[in-house]
Amino acid sequence: MQEQLWKLRDEALERIQKAADLKMLNDVRVSYLGKKGPITEVLRGMGKLSKEERPKIGALANEVREVIAAEIAKKQEKLEQEEVEKKLAAETIDVTLPGRPVHIGNPHPITSVIEEIENLFLGMGYEVAEGPEVETDYYNFEALNLPKGHPARDMQDSFYITEEILMRTHTSPVQARTLEKHKGKGPVKIICPGKVYRRDTDDATHSHQFTQIEGLVVDENIRMSDLKGTLEVFAKKLFGKDREIRLRPSFFPFTEPSVEVDVSCFSCGKKGCSVCKGTGWIEILGAGMVHPNVLEMAGFDSKKYRGFAFGMGPERIAMLKYGIDDIRHFYTNDLRFLKQFKQA
Protein backbone atom coordinates (compact mmCIF):
# COMPACT_ATOMS: atom_id res chain seq x y z
CA MET A 1 0.00 0.00 0.00
CA GLN A 2 2.96 2.28 0.61
CA GLU A 3 4.18 1.68 -2.92
CA GLN A 4 0.70 2.47 -4.23
CA LEU A 5 0.68 5.84 -2.39
CA TRP A 6 4.16 6.76 -3.67
CA LYS A 7 3.05 5.86 -7.19
CA LEU A 8 -0.10 8.04 -6.88
CA ARG A 9 2.07 10.93 -5.67
CA ASP A 10 4.45 10.65 -8.62
CA GLU A 11 1.56 10.38 -11.13
CA ALA A 12 -0.17 13.40 -9.64
CA LEU A 13 2.99 15.54 -9.64
CA GLU A 14 3.65 14.63 -13.26
CA ARG A 15 0.09 15.59 -14.31
CA ILE A 16 0.35 18.84 -12.33
CA GLN A 17 3.48 19.81 -14.25
CA LYS A 18 1.80 19.04 -17.58
CA ALA A 19 -1.37 21.04 -16.78
CA ALA A 20 -1.53 23.85 -19.37
CA ASP A 21 -4.44 25.78 -17.91
CA LEU A 22 -6.56 26.12 -14.80
CA LYS A 23 -9.21 23.71 -16.08
CA MET A 24 -6.68 20.89 -16.52
CA LEU A 25 -5.23 21.65 -13.09
CA ASN A 26 -8.67 21.48 -11.50
CA ASP A 27 -9.23 18.09 -13.17
CA VAL A 28 -6.04 16.83 -11.48
CA ARG A 29 -7.21 18.13 -8.10
CA VAL A 30 -10.59 16.40 -8.43
CA SER A 31 -8.98 13.14 -9.70
CA TYR A 32 -6.52 12.75 -6.80
CA LEU A 33 -7.96 14.71 -3.90
CA GLY A 34 -11.67 14.28 -4.50
CA LYS A 35 -13.98 12.07 -2.45
CA LYS A 36 -13.84 9.40 -5.13
CA GLY A 37 -10.09 9.73 -5.75
CA PRO A 38 -7.51 6.91 -5.38
CA ILE A 39 -6.05 8.27 -2.13
CA THR A 40 -9.49 8.13 -0.54
CA GLU A 41 -9.85 4.56 -1.79
CA VAL A 42 -6.55 3.64 -0.13
CA LEU A 43 -7.71 5.09 3.16
CA ARG A 44 -10.96 3.11 2.97
CA GLY A 45 -8.97 -0.11 2.65
CA MET A 46 -6.98 0.51 5.84
CA GLY A 47 -9.39 -1.70 7.73
CA LYS A 48 -7.66 -4.74 6.26
CA LEU A 49 -4.27 -3.68 7.68
CA SER A 50 -2.80 -4.67 10.99
CA LYS A 51 -2.81 -2.33 13.97
CA GLU A 52 0.89 -1.65 13.51
CA GLU A 53 0.56 -0.69 9.81
CA ARG A 54 -2.50 1.56 10.07
CA PRO A 55 -0.74 4.60 11.67
CA LYS A 56 2.12 4.43 9.18
CA ILE A 57 -0.19 4.19 6.13
CA GLY A 58 -2.47 6.91 7.50
CA ALA A 59 0.44 9.31 8.06
CA LEU A 60 1.84 8.52 4.60
CA ALA A 61 -1.56 9.08 2.94
CA ASN A 62 -1.88 12.48 4.62
CA GLU A 63 1.66 13.38 3.59
CA VAL A 64 0.97 12.44 -0.04
CA ARG A 65 -2.27 14.44 0.04
CA GLU A 66 -0.47 17.53 1.43
CA VAL A 67 2.34 17.28 -1.17
CA ILE A 68 -0.14 17.07 -4.04
CA ALA A 69 -2.25 19.97 -2.63
CA ALA A 70 0.86 22.15 -2.21
CA GLU A 71 2.03 21.52 -5.75
CA ILE A 72 -1.44 22.27 -7.12
CA ALA A 73 -1.47 25.60 -5.23
CA LYS A 74 1.92 26.57 -6.67
CA LYS A 75 0.88 25.60 -10.19
CA GLN A 76 -2.42 27.49 -9.85
CA GLU A 77 -0.65 30.68 -8.81
CA LYS A 78 1.69 30.36 -11.78
CA LEU A 79 -1.15 29.75 -14.27
CA GLU A 80 -3.18 32.68 -12.89
CA GLN A 81 -0.20 34.98 -13.26
CA GLU A 82 0.29 33.81 -16.84
CA GLU A 83 -3.37 34.55 -17.64
CA VAL A 84 -3.06 38.07 -16.22
CA GLU A 85 0.04 38.68 -18.35
CA LYS A 86 -1.76 37.41 -21.47
CA LYS A 87 -4.69 39.76 -20.82
CA LEU A 88 -2.38 42.70 -20.24
CA ALA A 89 -0.54 41.95 -23.47
CA ALA A 90 -3.82 41.66 -25.40
CA GLU A 91 -5.28 44.85 -23.91
CA THR A 92 -2.22 47.02 -24.21
CA ILE A 93 -3.06 50.62 -25.14
CA ASP A 94 -0.71 52.52 -27.36
CA VAL A 95 -0.76 55.94 -25.69
CA THR A 96 1.16 57.44 -28.61
CA LEU A 97 -1.82 57.00 -30.95
CA PRO A 98 -3.86 60.17 -31.56
CA GLY A 99 -7.11 60.22 -29.61
CA ARG A 100 -10.55 60.30 -31.17
CA PRO A 101 -12.06 63.81 -31.08
CA VAL A 102 -14.93 64.28 -28.65
CA HIS A 103 -17.63 66.49 -30.11
CA ILE A 104 -19.03 68.67 -27.35
CA GLY A 105 -22.63 69.78 -27.72
CA ASN A 106 -23.96 73.26 -27.11
CA PRO A 107 -27.15 74.70 -25.63
CA HIS A 108 -30.14 75.05 -27.93
CA PRO A 109 -30.71 78.72 -28.90
CA ILE A 110 -34.10 78.69 -27.13
CA THR A 111 -32.46 77.30 -23.98
CA SER A 112 -29.76 79.97 -24.18
CA VAL A 113 -32.32 82.76 -24.49
CA ILE A 114 -34.40 81.41 -21.60
CA GLU A 115 -31.32 81.12 -19.38
CA GLU A 116 -30.22 84.63 -20.33
CA ILE A 117 -33.65 86.03 -19.46
CA GLU A 118 -33.77 84.05 -16.21
CA ASN A 119 -30.35 85.34 -15.15
CA LEU A 120 -31.39 88.88 -15.99
CA PHE A 121 -34.51 88.76 -13.80
CA LEU A 122 -32.82 86.75 -11.03
CA GLY A 123 -30.39 89.65 -10.81
CA MET A 124 -33.38 91.95 -10.33
CA GLY A 125 -34.66 89.93 -7.36
CA TYR A 126 -37.16 87.67 -9.12
CA GLU A 127 -37.69 83.98 -8.39
CA VAL A 128 -38.27 81.27 -11.02
CA ALA A 129 -41.62 79.49 -10.60
CA GLU A 130 -42.87 76.40 -12.43
CA GLY A 131 -46.18 74.61 -12.80
CA PRO A 132 -47.84 71.65 -14.57
CA GLU A 133 -48.18 71.59 -18.36
CA VAL A 134 -51.43 69.61 -18.04
CA GLU A 135 -53.64 72.19 -16.37
CA THR A 136 -57.18 72.57 -15.07
CA ASP A 137 -59.68 74.86 -16.73
CA TYR A 138 -59.90 76.87 -13.52
CA TYR A 139 -56.25 77.88 -13.32
CA ASN A 140 -55.79 78.21 -17.08
CA PHE A 141 -58.84 80.47 -17.57
CA GLU A 142 -61.23 81.21 -14.69
CA ALA A 143 -58.61 82.31 -12.15
CA LEU A 144 -57.26 84.70 -14.83
CA ASN A 145 -60.57 86.52 -15.39
CA LEU A 146 -61.60 84.39 -18.36
CA PRO A 147 -64.98 82.90 -17.32
CA LYS A 148 -66.65 80.12 -19.26
CA GLY A 149 -67.94 81.37 -22.59
CA HIS A 150 -65.26 84.05 -22.94
CA PRO A 151 -64.15 84.27 -26.61
CA ALA A 152 -60.44 84.17 -25.64
CA ARG A 153 -60.87 80.58 -24.43
CA ASP A 154 -62.33 79.17 -27.63
CA MET A 155 -62.01 75.36 -27.64
CA GLN A 156 -60.70 75.54 -31.20
CA ASP A 157 -57.55 77.21 -29.83
CA SER A 158 -56.87 74.69 -27.03
CA PHE A 159 -55.96 71.03 -26.60
CA TYR A 160 -58.66 69.76 -24.24
CA ILE A 161 -58.23 66.35 -22.60
CA THR A 162 -61.57 66.48 -20.76
CA GLU A 163 -64.03 69.32 -20.27
CA GLU A 164 -62.04 70.50 -17.24
CA ILE A 165 -58.46 69.49 -18.14
CA LEU A 166 -56.33 70.77 -21.01
CA MET A 167 -52.75 71.41 -22.09
CA ARG A 168 -51.99 74.87 -20.76
CA THR A 169 -52.27 77.60 -23.39
CA HIS A 170 -49.93 80.00 -21.54
CA THR A 171 -47.77 80.03 -18.41
CA SER A 172 -50.17 82.40 -16.61
CA PRO A 173 -51.63 79.50 -14.56
CA VAL A 174 -48.30 79.44 -12.71
CA GLN A 175 -48.97 83.04 -11.68
CA ALA A 176 -52.46 82.13 -10.44
CA ARG A 177 -51.13 79.17 -8.45
CA THR A 178 -48.30 81.25 -6.96
CA LEU A 179 -50.67 84.03 -5.90
CA GLU A 180 -52.93 81.44 -4.28
CA LYS A 181 -50.00 79.99 -2.31
CA HIS A 182 -49.20 83.43 -0.86
CA LYS A 183 -52.70 83.54 0.71
CA GLY A 184 -53.23 87.24 0.15
CA LYS A 185 -49.85 88.40 1.44
CA GLY A 186 -47.24 90.09 -0.71
CA PRO A 187 -44.76 90.67 -2.07
CA VAL A 188 -44.76 88.34 -5.08
CA LYS A 189 -41.98 88.64 -7.65
CA ILE A 190 -41.63 85.74 -10.09
CA ILE A 191 -40.97 84.75 -13.68
CA CYS A 192 -42.53 81.59 -15.15
CA PRO A 193 -40.72 79.94 -18.08
CA GLY A 194 -42.17 76.83 -19.71
CA LYS A 195 -43.81 75.07 -22.64
CA VAL A 196 -47.33 75.93 -23.78
CA TYR A 197 -49.68 74.37 -26.33
CA ARG A 198 -52.21 75.79 -28.78
CA ARG A 199 -54.05 74.35 -31.76
CA ASP A 200 -52.27 76.33 -34.44
CA THR A 201 -51.08 75.60 -37.96
CA ASP A 202 -47.30 75.26 -38.03
CA ASP A 203 -45.66 77.75 -40.39
CA ALA A 204 -42.67 80.11 -40.41
CA THR A 205 -43.96 82.10 -37.42
CA HIS A 206 -46.35 79.72 -35.62
CA SER A 207 -46.09 76.38 -33.80
CA HIS A 208 -48.58 74.21 -31.91
CA GLN A 209 -46.05 73.88 -29.06
CA PHE A 210 -43.77 76.73 -28.06
CA THR A 211 -42.33 78.41 -24.96
CA GLN A 212 -43.31 81.43 -22.91
CA ILE A 213 -41.80 83.44 -20.11
CA GLU A 214 -44.17 85.47 -17.98
CA GLY A 215 -43.37 87.78 -15.13
CA LEU A 216 -45.46 88.90 -12.17
CA VAL A 217 -44.92 91.47 -9.44
CA VAL A 218 -47.54 92.09 -6.74
CA ASP A 219 -47.00 94.39 -3.77
CA GLU A 220 -48.22 97.62 -2.26
CA ASN A 221 -47.79 100.83 -4.26
CA ILE A 222 -46.92 99.11 -7.57
CA ARG A 223 -47.39 101.48 -10.52
CA MET A 224 -47.30 101.44 -14.31
CA SER A 225 -43.98 103.27 -14.13
CA ASP A 226 -42.49 100.24 -12.33
CA LEU A 227 -43.55 98.06 -15.24
CA LYS A 228 -42.07 100.43 -17.81
CA GLY A 229 -38.79 100.74 -15.90
CA THR A 230 -38.48 96.96 -15.60
CA LEU A 231 -39.08 96.44 -19.30
CA GLU A 232 -36.59 99.16 -20.24
CA VAL A 233 -33.88 97.39 -18.22
CA PHE A 234 -34.87 94.10 -19.86
CA ALA A 235 -34.71 95.52 -23.41
CA LYS A 236 -31.35 97.23 -22.90
CA LYS A 237 -29.77 94.16 -21.31
CA LEU A 238 -31.04 91.76 -23.97
CA PHE A 239 -30.84 93.85 -27.16
CA GLY A 240 -28.29 96.55 -26.36
CA LYS A 241 -27.96 99.66 -24.24
CA ASP A 242 -29.19 101.93 -27.06
CA ARG A 243 -32.61 100.27 -27.25
CA GLU A 244 -35.76 102.16 -26.41
CA ILE A 245 -39.25 100.82 -25.69
CA ARG A 246 -42.73 102.17 -26.31
CA LEU A 247 -46.07 101.09 -24.87
CA ARG A 248 -49.19 100.82 -27.03
CA PRO A 249 -52.72 100.38 -25.61
CA SER A 250 -54.06 96.84 -25.94
CA PHE A 251 -56.40 94.40 -24.22
CA PHE A 252 -55.81 91.26 -22.17
CA PRO A 253 -58.51 89.82 -19.87
CA PHE A 254 -56.12 89.44 -16.93
CA THR A 255 -54.57 92.95 -17.02
CA GLU A 256 -56.10 96.44 -16.91
CA PRO A 257 -54.77 98.62 -18.40
CA SER A 258 -52.99 96.43 -20.96
CA VAL A 259 -50.20 97.33 -23.37
CA GLU A 260 -48.19 95.92 -26.25
CA VAL A 261 -44.48 96.59 -25.83
CA ASP A 262 -42.24 97.48 -28.78
CA VAL A 263 -38.47 97.85 -28.83
CA SER A 264 -36.64 100.18 -31.18
CA CYS A 265 -35.27 98.31 -34.17
CA PHE A 266 -31.73 97.17 -33.50
CA SER A 267 -31.10 96.82 -37.22
CA CYS A 268 -31.86 100.38 -38.37
CA GLY A 269 -32.12 102.38 -35.13
CA LYS A 270 -35.76 103.49 -35.78
CA LYS A 271 -35.04 104.64 -39.34
CA GLY A 272 -37.12 101.90 -40.92
CA CYS A 273 -35.97 98.68 -42.60
CA SER A 274 -37.16 95.24 -43.66
CA VAL A 275 -36.67 93.85 -40.16
CA CYS A 276 -39.10 96.32 -38.58
CA LYS A 277 -41.23 96.55 -41.75
CA GLY A 278 -40.39 100.21 -42.11
CA THR A 279 -41.83 101.25 -38.73
CA GLY A 280 -38.62 101.53 -36.73
CA TRP A 281 -40.17 99.43 -33.94
CA ILE A 282 -40.50 95.68 -33.25
CA GLU A 283 -43.18 94.17 -31.00
CA ILE A 284 -41.64 91.88 -28.38
CA LEU A 285 -44.20 91.26 -25.61
CA GLY A 286 -47.52 92.05 -23.95
CA ALA A 287 -47.93 93.48 -20.47
CA GLY A 288 -50.19 95.40 -18.13
CA MET A 289 -51.37 96.00 -14.58
CA VAL A 290 -52.85 92.88 -12.95
CA HIS A 291 -56.66 92.97 -13.13
CA PRO A 292 -58.30 93.43 -9.69
CA ASN A 293 -60.47 90.37 -10.35
CA VAL A 294 -57.36 88.19 -10.66
CA LEU A 295 -56.03 89.50 -7.34
CA GLU A 296 -59.37 89.02 -5.58
CA MET A 297 -59.78 85.44 -6.85
CA ALA A 298 -56.34 84.61 -5.44
CA GLY A 299 -57.23 86.06 -2.03
CA PHE A 300 -55.51 89.46 -2.32
CA ASP A 301 -57.11 92.73 -1.31
CA SER A 302 -57.09 94.67 -4.60
CA LYS A 303 -57.44 97.97 -2.71
CA LYS A 304 -54.19 97.29 -0.84
CA TYR A 305 -52.19 95.37 -3.43
CA ARG A 306 -51.48 96.11 -7.06
CA GLY A 307 -49.21 94.43 -9.54
CA PHE A 308 -47.97 94.17 -13.09
CA ALA A 309 -47.47 91.22 -15.39
CA PHE A 310 -45.75 90.66 -18.72
CA GLY A 311 -45.36 87.78 -21.12
CA MET A 312 -42.97 87.06 -23.96
CA GLY A 313 -42.09 84.24 -26.33
CA PRO A 314 -38.43 83.10 -26.21
CA GLU A 315 -38.77 81.93 -29.83
CA ARG A 316 -39.75 85.45 -30.87
CA ILE A 317 -36.87 86.91 -28.84
CA ALA A 318 -34.39 84.42 -30.33
CA MET A 319 -35.59 85.09 -33.88
CA LEU A 320 -35.05 88.82 -33.38
CA LYS A 321 -31.78 88.40 -31.49
CA TYR A 322 -30.17 86.02 -33.99
CA GLY A 323 -31.93 87.05 -37.21
CA ILE A 324 -33.78 83.72 -37.66
CA ASP A 325 -36.61 83.87 -40.20
CA ASP A 326 -38.41 80.55 -39.56
CA ILE A 327 -39.54 79.26 -36.16
CA ARG A 328 -39.45 75.69 -37.46
CA HIS A 329 -35.64 75.77 -37.43
CA PHE A 330 -35.82 75.49 -33.64
CA TYR A 331 -37.59 72.10 -33.74
CA THR A 332 -36.10 70.20 -36.70
CA ASN A 333 -32.87 69.20 -34.87
CA ASP A 334 -30.72 70.24 -37.83
CA LEU A 335 -27.13 70.16 -36.53
CA ARG A 336 -26.03 72.60 -39.23
CA PHE A 337 -28.40 75.16 -37.70
CA LEU A 338 -27.69 74.35 -34.04
CA LYS A 339 -23.89 74.44 -34.39
CA GLN A 340 -24.08 78.13 -35.25
CA PHE A 341 -24.93 78.91 -31.62
CA LYS A 342 -21.89 77.44 -29.89
CA GLN A 343 -20.93 79.50 -26.88
CA ALA A 344 -17.36 80.59 -26.25
- On the 0-100 scale, what is the average pLDDT? 86
**Structural class, please?**
alpha+beta
CATH class of the largest domain: Alpha Beta
CATH homologous superfamily label of the largest domain: Bira Bifunctional Protein, Domain 2
- Number of helices in the DSSP assignment: 11
Strand content: 15-25%
Instruction: Count the beta strands.
Output: 9
Helicity level:
25-40%
The largest sheet is:
7 strands, mixed
Q: Name the CATH architecture of the largest domain.
A: 2-Layer Sandwich
Query: What is the CA–CA distance across the termini?
Result: 87 Å
Enter the CATH topology name of the largest domain: BirA Bifunctional Protein, domain 2
> Ranges with pLDDT <50 over ≥5 residues?
none
Number of domains: 2
* Neighbour order of strands in the largest sheet: 1-4-5-9-8-7-6
Could you state the order of secondary-structure elements as H and E?
A: HHHHHEEHEHEEHEEEHEHH
Characterize the overall form: elongated
Radius of gyration using CA atoms only: 41 Å
Per-chain topology:
Elements (H helix, E strand, L loop, with lengths): L1 H17 L3 H12 L4 H7 L8 H38 L18 H14 L4 E2 L5 E3 H4 L24 E3 L4 H10 L6 E10 L11 E11 L4 H16 L5 E8 L2 E10 L16 E10 L1 H6 L8 E7 L1 H9 L12 H4 L6
Parallel strand pairs: 1-4
Antiparallel strand pairs: 2-3, 4-5, 5-9, 6-7, 7-8, 8-9
Helix pairs in contact: 1-2, 1-4, 2-4, 5-10
Structure description:
This protein folds into 2 domains: 2-90; 109-341, BirA Bifunctional Protein, domain 2 (2-Layer Sandwich), CATH 3.30.930. With 344 residues, it is α+β, with helices and mostly antiparallel strands. It is elongated, with a radius of gyration of 41 Å. The model has no long low-confidence stretch (mean pLDDT 86). Helix 1 (2-18) packs antiparallel against helix 2 (22-33) and helix 1 (2-18) runs parallel beside helix 4. It is built from 11 helices and 9 strands. The protein has helices at residues 2-18, 22-33, 38-44, 53-90, 109-122, 137-140, 172-181, 224-239, 292-297, 314-322, 335-338, and strands at residues 127-128, 134-136, 165-167, 188-197, 209-219, 245-252, 255-264, 281-290, 306-312. The longest helix is centred in the first third of the chain and has 38 residues, at 53-90. Strands 1-4-5-9-8-7-6 form a 7-stranded mixed β-sheet, with helices on both faces. A two-stranded antiparallel ribbon has the order 2-3. Its main location: cytoplasm. Keywords: Aminoacyl-tRNA synthetase, ATP-binding, Coiled coil, Cytoplasm, Ligase, Magnesium, Metal-binding, Nucleotide-binding, Protein biosynthesis.
